[in-house]
TrEMBL record:
Residues 1-27 form the signal peptide. Residues 35-259 form the Solute-binding protein family 3/N-terminal domain. Keywords: Signal. Belongs to the bacterial solute-binding protein SsuA/TauA family. InterPro entries: Solute-binding_3/MltF_N, SsuA/THI5, TAT_signal. It comes from the Bacteria. It comes from Pseudolabrys taiwanensis. This is Solute-binding protein family 3/N-terminal domain-containing protein.
Amino acid sequence: MSLSRRQFTTAALGLAAASTLPKGSFAAAKGNGGTIRMMLNPAGTMSFPPFVIKKFKLDEKYGFKFETINYTNANTATAAMQSKSAEMIVYEWLATARIIDGGIPIVGVAPFMTYVNTVLVPKDSPIKTLADLKGKRLGVHSKTSYDWMIMQAAAKQKYGVDLAKEVTIQEAAAPLLRGSIDQGQLDATQMWNSLAADMLASGKYKTLVTIRAITEDLGIPTVPYLFFGMRADYVKENPDNVKAFVAAYQEVYEILKTNDDVWEERGKEMKLSPEGIKEFRDQVRRDLVKTFTPDMNPALQKTFDIVLKVAGPEVIGFTKLPPNMLSLDYQ
């Protein structure tokens, strides 16, 4: 029996929708219908999971309500978590440890990405290694960040160069650093991966080194640099919602790995060039992490010991890494 035009159209639309979703099944998690508010830097890579959750209505699928709250600096995001104006944030592990040490209990419930940032130099730059930064002008997004500390550790161990003393540092937000190097005010700069993609695609810049390469060269295990952290009180009171979010994120992971359309759509919203979108997409896909593993907490401890030795407690702000920041209980 042949299909009517309406039946055919309905079937075709169903197949088209199904083709945009990843193959395989996901955990049968169901939230309690409550709201999860996530602090979000809309210019960063962290904007992609919320975009996918909303686009595919994964919060509805898994039984919770999802909202995002934009922020422009870490202090604002931290204050929101402290005042219970938000339930979740995506932060680097060292910044999260500082927040916990400062008295705001946070539980890592799902990973996001490994070390993704880079150090860029102009295309015609003679700088080839970290040692060549000696006497140069370097942009860093934070003097208390993991990126800067691990650069110092590598330069000291491999080349005997103390970057903190032998480099002129300009500390600023990544967009400002991009403007400074564009104007010739910097010889090299750290750069967020979301901005580095377009810079590399322009042909005006090249990668001096990636933070991941530095980390691996020092023999440090690869761990989630960025992860989803929730307030500990919310996790305790709403375990079903936590499991539901983690299940939704695991589906987000599969979509980001396989669906090119979401990268193009969100990349255009971020005003990336077509070449930049592809560069960005391919890099992030390499560095996405789907689940926590038992070895990740010990690996974080090993990494912390190295940066503490290099930077000292005065810079880091504390001397002991909070135990078991990453929870495997909700995946």
